[in-house]
Amino acid sequence: MAAARFVDQLNIQIGNEFAAHQQYVSVAIYFDGRTMPQTAAFFYRQAREERDHAMMMAQYLLDADQPVTMPAVEAPVSEFADLVAPIELALAQERRVTLEISRLMQIAREESDFASEQFTTWFIKEQVEETAKMSDLLAVVKRSAQNIEAIEDYVQREQSARGADPMAPRIAGSGV
């Protein structure tokens, strides 16, 4: 049985993941509006990943016979000063999520909730990858802000979709 503190925090995190989903949709739309299809597609994929993370968390709570709450989320930022601003926001978001996931791990350990600690481990690994990906993208966009084609080439080459992680937790509603 999952520890009550962990359950409460994981329900909060579900809301955080849905908020991240909305923010990435907003960023994708921004890049779509600037005729940057590779960068837009990258952020649409990022949005799906965040939604999937929320649904993985929901599935974990369902599997643990714990309540799942769907908190409201704030409206995302939708206006940006330049091409760099949405990437800076995305990196800050990934860093914040890393702290939130680390807090979940801390709670699981404090509560000796070993199943929840094991569940959280995958998200720790995922956050390292996501933060590195956004940090790299920010460096490229800062360097190439006046050359949209260079940004698009980089995203197509380096940030393309990867296959599903066979170690990822189950996604609620996916049937897998």
TL;DR?
Helices cover 71% and strands 0% of the residues.
Report on the architecture of this protein.
With 176 residues, the chain is mainly α. It has one domain: Up-down Bundle (Ferritin). The protein contains five helices and no strands. The longest helix is centred in the first third of the chain and has 30 residues, at 4-33. 32% of the residues are buried.
How do the helices and strands line up, and which of them pair or pack?
Layout: H1 4-33, H2 37-63, H3 84-110, H4 114-143, H5 148-158
For the record, what is the CATH homologous superfamily label? Ferritin, core subunit, four-helix bundle
- Strand fraction equals under 5%
- Summed up, the domain count is 1
Could you tell me how far the N terminus lies from the C terminus, measured between alpha carbons in angstroms?
Answer: 22 Å
Order of helices and strands: HHHHH
The share of residues in helices is over 70%
